[in-house]
Design a protein that fits this description.
Strand content: 5-15%
Structural class: alpha+beta
Number of helices: 7
Length: about 160
């Protein structure tokens, strides 16, 4: 999938610095997981430190800044979208890493504002615009920003 990511190395570094407090939370959680068998590696594709085989959680993955905590062996696992799980639509399966990469971009844009905004928008649910945007990005490669709408993306892509 072609990634429509934030452009430029300098902008990416600024985003990483902006979300550093969130990343530190992720590193602390990941370090605790290492004691229970988690593995760690840097993923250039995801712009994140990935802790795989993370020992806690219901399954899937969670992102904190530039850290992804994944209960599986890697981020290539296929999964369904939040809307599909809620019975709202029949979306194609998505790659877990693509969904989590959208959250990494959201964190880099919003920094310390991400978590309060994420929970104000409904937390982990299909109603949360952050989750819908991450699913949209995983399906199309565009639209990771939580305040983008599908009509705007279609008009832009038609150009």
């Amino acid at each position: 999938m072609r990634s429509r990511a934030p452009k430029g190395g300098l902008l990416r570094l600024a985003g990483m610095a902006w979300t550093a407090p969130n990343t530190l939370l992720g590193v602390a959680a990941g370090a605790a997981g290492l004691l229970r068998g988690a593995r760690v590696r840097w993923s250039a594709a995801e712009h994140a430190l990935v802790f795989s085989r993370y020992p806690w959680g219901p399954g899937g993955a969670m992102t904190l800044g530039n850290v992804i905590l994944s209960t599986g062996p890697d981020l290539d696992a296929a999964c369904v979208t939040y809307a599909h799980r809620a019975g709202h639509c029949i979306d194609p399966q998505i790659r877990l890493g693509d969904h989590e990469r959208a959250h990494v971009y959201q964190y880099m844009a919003l920094g310390p504002l991400f978590l309060p905004l994420y929970f104000a928008c409904g937390g982990i649910s299909v109603r949360n615009r952050f989750e819908r945007a991450a699913d949209r990005y995983a399906i199309t490669g565009a639209g990771w920003w939580p305040w983008s709408d599908a009509a705007t993306l279609r008009r832009r892509d038609a150009r």
